[in-house]
Structure formats: structure tokens, C-alpha cells
Amino acid sequence: MLVEGDRPLRSDAAKNRERLLRAAGQVFEAQGLEASVADVARAAGVGMGTLYRRFPSKDALIDALVTGVLEATVAMAEEAAEQPDGLGLEKFLAASASYEAEHVGCLPKVWCNDHELIHVARRLIARLLADAKVHHRVREDLTTTDITLAKWSIRGVLETAGGTNPQIWQRHLDLLIAGMRPAGDKLPHRPVSQAQVDRIRYSSQADPCVS
Amino acid sequence: MLVEGDRPLRSDAAKNRERLLRAAGQVFEAQGLEASVADVARAAGVGMGTLYRRFPSKDALIDALVTGVLEATVAMAEEAAEQPDGLGLEKFLAASASYEAEHVGCLPKVWCNDHELIHVARRLIARLLADAKVHHRVREDLTTTDITLAKWSIRGVLETAGGTNPQIWQRHLDLLIAGMRPAGDKLPHRPVSQAQVDRIRYSSQADPCVS
DNA sequence: TCGTAAACGGAGTGAAAACTCCGTATTGTC
DNA sequence: GACAATACGGAGTTTTCACTCCGTTTACGA
What we know:
Two copies of one chain form a homodimer.
Chain A: H1 11-31, H2 37-44, H3 48-54, H4 58-80, H5 88-101, H6 116-134, H7 144-161, H8 166-180, H9 194-199
The structure holds a DNA duplex.
């Protein structure tokens, strides 16, 4: 998944790599993704050379953070799948929102579509949704793309509010889940097709989001 | 509201000002706010000097766009207030989402809290919400901060998906409104206080959002 | 039509930030 | 303990981009 393909890292290099990732998360959360790499290096207590030896570009550094979030997301989806009674979907949404709240820094780059792990997560979410329907936890006309939109929306709340305050995303998730509950009427508009979602490349950045 | 305090603009200057605003909207939508001002000037067909004579900084240009969106938002809220039967809130949410979808470029800077017009809009929204409650269109435990979160969430969807496709935000708004509908149970978590919302300064940019 | 105040274009400037280079230091193996 | 191989720091390079300056042009009242 990461750039290092060959032999294991020397111990100091491995330690600095972790430091850099941790520092990058903090700096990007505090200043946004336009924070300078020099700031990240300083926060990590290493030199620029070290940063660039480990991550060939700023984009690669961000991508490593994104990959971490996505791996955690997939893990949470797998764990939620073991929840009985069709409550896995809700559990997953809460768990991943909570995790994202702690990693706000790289969120703008997380839910673009280029990343392999996103497709893995999406398949798992589809199963969670199906299970929730079997147990009549959610309305019949709910689709996986609705869940995708819900995740984008939580990201919007987290990015605006910062990840500090759990109340904020919890209350918003309450509202979303209330909207997902079974109801007599269908949602007024047609669901968004998966193809439409796939076509989106996250336009608010000019460059493709994974380096 | 705008920087020009004195005499009216000469005709060519006024024309170029409009061109610049239109071009800025398009360029920022296509490339994000980190697009260069040179690109904006080129798209508008004017020189750098003209841009900077009209808008003293890039931030001021963005702020002019933001002000336009907020003025439209206030106008839409006022219009929605005339809707009978407590449907004004839903009408407003749909109208403002539709408008924002056409002005995705500057959205990242719109819903920070520093702008005077935001408070105006918020007061209008509070009245729309109260009216919706009187007519039992929404649940009793819904608060104005919930609407604020809903607007942030729509912004998240629009920013990710781009403003091009109305289906996307409509379907998401369907879900939100379904969650707002009257129900037997209360939402699990406590509502977010207005003070908490006011404390947020939109952290994903380091600088304060209005120049 | 003429004069002037206002506006125009766009090359030039300075700062900021991504990325490189290389002399020095550290790790881990024989 | 010595010696490669690997990693380290941080000053220097290059590029990008916001912003300025000034000679030329345009609008518009008299």
C-alpha cells in the first residue's frame, strides 16, 4: 500500500516516519492542508531531508494519512459486520465519524474516488445496509449511494466544526439516522446511481487526489 | 456592503467588475480557491491591474463572492417566510442548496461565522423553524443549530460532488428532511448550543475567513 | 471636440513554499 | 570495533503566486 516496497526500514527511519505522520496529522488539522511541509518537519523534530526521503512529495505524505484513515474505516466496517440485529450500519457510521473527527486534517482528500480502499469500504457498507434492511432498521428505498452522501455530509460538518466536539457530529448523525428509519412514504427524489458517484473526482482540488 | 464607498464607477469599470466576479466564480469552481488571481483575470479578459484596482486583495475578491451568496440566502429566507402551512423551511433549504450548487467555488468560505449576514440569515431561519413546528412539519426537538449543521452537511455534499448534479443534493436533502419530520422519539443526543456554533471559526483555513 | 480624471494592461518584484544536495552522523553486521 | 550502507539536517535552488507600478488608453462633462 505504501511507497516502501523493498527491505525493512532502519529503526531510526521507522521511528521518524511515525513521528512525521503524527505531526502531519496535527499540523494539517490545525492549519489545513496548505500548511507548509517545513512546519510538519519542525513539528516532527526532523529535517526536510528526512521528510522527503520518506515521502517523495507533500502529496505522498497526505496520501499516507488518507490511507491510514481508509484502512481504519475498512477495519471498522468489518467489525461492524459482526454486530447482530442489523445495527452494524449505525455502529459503523458512528465509529467512522468518531475516527474521522480525530483525523480532520486529511479529510478533504479522503473521500475522493481514486483510492482502492474506498471500493473495498463501499462493498462492506453495501452488506451492512442489506443487513439493516433485513432487520427493518432502515427504509426499503435507502441505497448505498445514500450512505455515501451521508458520509460526505458528515465530513462537511466535521470540516466546518473541527473534530474537537463530538456532540456536533453525533447530533447530525442522529438526524441522518432518523431520516433512514423505515417510513410509509418513499424519499421524493430518485437515488443517485453508483455510476454518478464514480464519475466524481473531487473537483475542489485541481489535481487528482492521490499522487 | 462592498468596498466602494464613494462615487459611482465609470461604465467600463462597472462592467469589468461584473466580469471579474463571474469569472472568479467559474475559475474557483473549476480549480478551487487556490486558483491563481492571474487565471481569474485571464478568464475575465482583463489585466491584473484592473483586478487589483477593484478588489484590493484576493481575499477581498472571494469575500465579494461570499457576500453575494449570503445576500441571496437572506433573500431566499425572506421569500420562504411568506410560504403558508409551515413549508417555508423546506422551501428555503431546497432553494438555498440549489443556489449554492451554482456557486460551489466560494462555498468553503461561506459558512464561517464572521459575516454579519450569517446572523441575519440565522434569525430568519429560526422563524422558519418555529413556523414549521407550529404546523407540525418537523419534530419538536429540532433546533436552529440542527439546521445549521444540515446546511454544513449540504455544503459537504456539494463540495465533494461539485454543483453540477442537482440529483445529488436533492436526494441528500430528502434524507435530512425525513429525519426532521415529527416522530415519537427524540433524537438521542442533546442539541448543539448556539454558543458552541458561534465559537467555531472555520478551522480548516488558518486565516480568518473574511478579510 | 477637448481636457482631465479615471481606468487599463501587463511586465516586474518580493516573498513563500516545495523540493534538492551534500557533508556529517548513525545503525547494524562481520 | 570497524566498515559499509543507510539516514540525518538544513542551507540553497527553483518555482509559483500575490501584489505593485507606470506608461498608455478610455469615458464623459463642458
